[in-house]
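Chain particulars:
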Amino acid sequence: MTTDISIQVHGVSKQFDEKVVLDDITLAVPRAQIFGLLGPSGSGKTTLVRLIAGIDVPTSGTVHVLGEQMPQLAMLSKIGYMAQSDALYAELTAQENLEFFASLYGLTGTKRKQRIHDVMELVDLGAHLKKQVSNYSGGMKRRLSLAISLLHEPGILILDEPTVGIDPVLRKSIWQELTNLSRQGTTILVTTHVMDEADKCHQLGMIRDGRLTAVGTPDELKLATSSATIEEAFLYYGGVKQ
């Protein structure tokens, strides 16, 4: 695997009992790119990102992140993962949640304090640092989960539907930050249903019924399907001819 490829998935399938959830997926994500996985609910996106994050293992095939075969415990410090469901301690304050995850990542002292401040400002929760998470709205919990995934400045960021329930203004600023991070060398894998977010990705993988139906830049996918928008291309690859 070349050093320019951060994530390499080769021939990956995943089965739960008799149900095939992923079927022979192969893709490569270059370093410092934003790679979007676009597909309907139940298409296999979440299963795929869980395999890449090392939370689950494929039935067949291999997953490499930064050259290491996953799952690999030592890779956790290099990956920021934001799940679809928020993994937060509701009885603790936001600050206590952040302090806990910072300690897992080995952040201490001034650096820890600065990172907590920076990520909370980014997601516009600075004023709610001392608030108990059980009093957070759904959108605030999503934003706190994103802050936690960014805390240790990981080289690989894996975000599963990161902007669900987040208002359009903040969504725009979060995407500006993701673009900035990719320019600084962070590789970002993101799942989304939102077409204007898909357009902001460097590359897209269209996934349906556990199969990768197309991979390319947004412009390449639009050109290949004679589509004016990424939504039209998405419908085309989903079998809905225009």
